[in-house]
Design a protein that fits this description.
The chain is an alpha/beta fold. It has eight helices and 15 strands. 44% of the residues are buried.
Length: 264
């Protein structure tokens, strides 16, 4: 099946939800071309306010409702999906780093609260850990979503592939000192799981941290179909999900797994 993904590699203004929303709207207006191909727009991690963790009490979006209303309106206007692009969300018991999946009707199809919280960024001090996977049908194709640091946990992404997912969407704020890890891990996750990996990273600078960009679309053989470079920008890529079936049929690694030996 032919699908299209739009990678919105954006800079993020810390704590300024109004500006960040307008930036998404402006880039969409400037770059979107109507197409019959089902299209998903992918945003960076915590695209709405950035890593303003110490200001979460003032900035967090209750249950992600503001983000849903804003992105849902754009989804209906342009007839697109929004997949990934997490927000700092206030929930009943605390705060979470929450990615949303929104269909072209503006409906919340699923959400994902980040499971692996990176202590290096003090996420574990500010967010509650998620407890569930995020799997969904994107225009009839089984897909999954995760966030940034999750990429380092290969066993997490393998669960999606074993469940039959053909696309993995990743939103991130990955810094430039470790950008080669990002590039390598994206290719590894695509190759080992024989799936498309669609990854959107932030660009720009916050304080002393430079974010690396290098958003990417990787095919099931590990070849890069799109590289976002390091600057703010948007790219659209068409993919053919039949390549997943072809790759998995040629080299049926899932049938050769021996999980009874791996997990004791």
């Amino acid at each position: 099946m032919q699908l299209r993904v739009g990678i919105f590699q954006l800079d993020i203004r810390i704590g300024d939800r109004k500006y960040n929303q307008q930036n998404v709207r402006d880039w969409l207006k400037r770059t979107y071309l109507p197409d019959d191909t089902p299209t998903a727009i992918v945003l960076p991690e915590i695209w709405d306010v950035g890593y303003a963790l110490n200001e979460k009490e003032q900035l967090a979006d209750k249950n992600g409702e503001q983000a849903l209303a804003f992105l849902g309106s754009l989804a209906r206007e342009y007839g697109v999906w929004f997949i990934g692009g997490s927000v700092m969300a206030k929930v009943d018991d605390g705060f979470v780093n929450r990615a949303q999946v929104i269909n072209p009707k503006g409906e919340l199809v699923n959400y994902y609260d980040k499971v692996h919280l990176i202590g290096l960024m003090d996420e574990d001090k500010h967010f509650m850990r998620g407890t569930r996977k995020c799997e969904f049908d994107f225009a009839g194709i089984k897909s999954a979503a995760c966030i940034c640091y999750d990429l380092r946990f290969c066993e997490w992404q393998r669960t999606f592939a074993v469940d039959g997912a053909e696309l993995l969407f990743i939103s991130a704020e990955w810094p430039i000192p470790r950008i080669e890890h990002w590039n390598t891990l994206l290719r590894a996750r695509a190759i080992e799981n024989q799936m498309f990996v669609v990854a959107c990273n932030r660009s720009g600078v916050t304080g002393d941290t430079i974010f690396g960009g290098r958003s990417a679309v990787i095919d099931p053989l590990g070849y890069t179909l799109f590289d976002g470079g390091t600057d703010e920008g948007v790219g659209y890529v068409k993919i053919d999900t039949e390549m997943v079936d072809t790759t998995r049929a040629f080299l049926p690694v899932f049938g050769d797994r021996t999980p009874n030996i791996y997990f004791k």
